[in-house]
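Title: Prediction job returns without error message
Component: structure pipeline
Severity: low
Priority: P3
Assignee: unassigned

Description:
Job completed but the reporter wants confirmation the result is attached to the right record. Sequence as submitted:
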Amino acid sequence: MTSSDRSQAVDEKRSYEVRTYGCQMNVHDSERLSGLLEDAGYVRAPEGSDGDADVVVFNTCAVRENADNKLYGNLGRLAPMKTKRPGMQIAVGGCLAQKDRDTIVKKAPWVDVVFGTHNIGKLPVLLERARIQEEAQVEIAESLEAFPSTLPTRRESAYAAWVSISVGCNNTCTFCIVPALRGKEEDRRPGDILAEVEALVAEGVSEITLLGQNVNAYGSDLGDREAFSKLLRACGEIEGLERVRFTSPHPRDFTDDVIAAMAETPNVMPQLHMPMQSGSDPILKAMRRSYRQERFLGIIEKVRAAIPHAAISTDIIVGFPGETEEDFQQTMYAVREARFANAFTFQYSKRPGTPAADMDGQIPKEVVQERYMRLVALQEEISWEENKKQVGRTLEVMVAEGEGRKDGATHRLSGRAPDNRLVHFTKPDQEVRPGDVVTVDITYAAPHHLLAEGPTLMVRRTRAGDAWEKRNAAPAQPAGVMLGIPTLGVPAPLPAAVSGCAVPASS
């Protein structure tokens, strides 16, 4: 490519695509990456472009054992496309990039940029440098260069957003590699967090989810053990903020002041996602989880006493090294006692670089699979029973965008109840926009959703709905760079945190 060709390519609007794997931290980072690229003059490629963009960015996860196979498979599929399209660039970031560094370029020499979890802000510069020097740029920072919320963001949702309150993790769970890749916990200043929330509300956002690798440990870096409960209460003072959620907390840091703040702050939703991982004390010890079954179930009991209608979900790993049938039965017992609204269960698989990967007592695959199926069947039964208790209740549902895949065929709309349960409801005669709130009677329950088959009792038009309408009334073009850490629509029910710290957005 000649220098004149290169100058012409830079002058033209180059398109980009970001592919995200892993936890909500990666979702957060991907929205920052999109914001950075648009701030640098790139435009988002149309949906379904499938690699047909000038720049394709992979934001990777290293939690799963086959994460690298998935990445290299996708990179391999792009290689011939890159050969046919001079000037196309491929970048790899995220946890796998932080972990594997130079290995990525050795295995896939057609990759142009490799960057880590600590220096996502460098992506546009690295892309330009790779284009000018015509060689791969590998830059992995060992510590955080800038807190992610200081970077520009391309926010997808007009009405719901993620707000990062901390990065990193101080735990040493034996199945998790995240602390080694994300670093030690760093907390944002409360004033910075609240300023971001207020800015989001001013833009029309009505629901925020506070995000951290270990969200309720917030304050350890600030020297204030009650900082998280104070933050929840401060969010309750923000006018126009209707719903506050948080993910993912750790039982070790789940103190009574947090429960009180949840119960006493009206806009903090009656929902809790708290990873249990195992119900067996010996396995919890082997996992280096700093609580035991009695402590975990005690927290659940306190939350239910303070917030009777709270929906509680969890993460569970089946088949951790050394797990006996007795250990597994303790997990089954804890599930029966806790009566989770839903549980995200995973069969243990080795994560390279974690202590558990080298432990004795690795469980045969067929044993893990059989236990997994028993646990899923039990939780499915409990989820359905707990959802049936919702029949007859009148709920306020925040209308979501794209949550009901069959809404068109069933003439329904979908949204989230305060406890984050998914509700499908009959489409009312009047216009309802994502971000608006409807009041409905629940008439039917399935294990994973509720139905409101009767007429909508009330439709409340909101500033969030206005913001959605304003954005979608504009000519088709990339959204501007905004504040916030959102996902599409109202944040979906929390998926499983295979690390116990972060919540995967996709597998």
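Comment from assignee: result matches the submitted record. Confidence is low (pLDDT under 50) at residues 1-11, 476-507.
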